[in-house]
Specification:
Helix content is 41%, strand content 13%. By secondary structure, it is an alpha/beta fold. Strands 3-2-1-4-5-6 form a six-stranded parallel sheet, with helices on both faces. Strands 10-9-11-12-13 form a five-stranded parallel sheet. A two-stranded parallel ribbon has the order 7-8. The protein binds uridine-5'-diphosphate-xylopyranose. Uridine-5'-diphosphate-xylopyranose binds next to α9.
Amino acid sequence: MKITVVGTGYVGLACTAFVRKGHEIVCVDIDANKIAMLERGEIPILEPGLSDLIADGRSSGLLSFTTNLAEALKGADVCFICVGTPPLPDGSADLRFVETAMGSVKALKESTTIVVIKSTVPVGTCARLGAVSNPEFLREGRAIEDFLHPDRIVIGTDDESAKKKLLELYASFDCPKLVMSPASSELTKYAANGFLATKISFINEIANLCDCVGANVLDVAQAIGLDSRIGPHFLHAGLGYGGSCFPKDTVALHQIAGSHDHDFRLLEAVISANKQQRARFVQKVFKRTSPGDVLAVWGLAFKAGTDDVRESAAIEIVHRLMQSGYKVRVFDPMAMEGAKKIVHDRDVFVSSALMAVNGVDALLVLTEWPEFRDVDFDEVRRSMKQPRIFDGRNLLADLALEKRGFEYVGVGLGQRV
Ligand code: UDX
């Protein structure tokens, strides 16, 4: 099939994986610089497998990039709208880009082209704009893998010919394909993210309780996760969720509910617990250190495996510490460039985990990069002024750091802190 993809952000670029299924893809963006970059083979985001995919797609002739929408739509079977839906001040999704893209596509497309919205949009948008809903559930750092091997594919349409074409497009994907109304499909995306966020806030609250009662959240999470009705995923207590999706989508879902006079109190609590989790961690640090102290920070990305710092707990915590009079020295294996755009004091950035700890009063672990576990902790202890670690991700919890001379504080490890 011939597929047009409008928008070359995260979701749009992940759609290039259709070339692996033998489809022809034309990606369109209004940003000429971005298209020029992609044509030169430069990839604006860091995503495993994406650069090979784009190189292969271009050399096989199946993938091309353009700013010319009319050209891109010629002979297209399906057109995916993958433009951004950033939050407005009230938390609702800003649909300006989706509406503009839909308007242009409708004016230029051929009558047989099916228009599909992949962007996360409020319930009712697809029906109103006359598009099929087909949400994505891609994780950053695993987007291509998730795209090619999804747990399920959700298609929201009441139109028989659109249903037929999309089922044909996804025929070679080995997973359940669920066809439902556009409203159900749109809500599915929010419900999935809302539920996962709920799981995270729940385990974080259990962790906080563990700290009060002297229980260990790692044991509790493992034990409840073995219940097949609960499952082991998304039970890592820590600093709460960040990134470009969960914070935005939970607030948008709450706003959607409110706009229909539905008071979604559970979700409100999930959102507020997530905010509290960061503040709680900072309080732990404040209790044991003093303004003027020098703190090392390992990790700035919102999670491991990405250079993305959007809504990152680490960035918020670094800002709070700096505002409270602490000196910080930060290191992240991938997210330094992105962080430099938000944390303007260049002096805080150092080029290795070991450099960060030299002479500091405490070390804070804020992103769960596995390589932080491989650092020589005897050397870390010798370098630090005070051998004290606050681990916001419980990344080092099993390394017996207390036995190696550290004061070690995790999240919910029953240390009554
Ligand atoms: C998420 C969804 O997983 C994906 O389906 C959706 O399409 C987009 O949003 P992503 O933002 O890439 O993907 O991150 P994810 O891996 O889901 O993690 C989200 C946040 O939750 C991260 O900040 C992570 O550190 C945190 N998290 C995750 C926890 O704190 N505990 C957990 O157990 C799991």
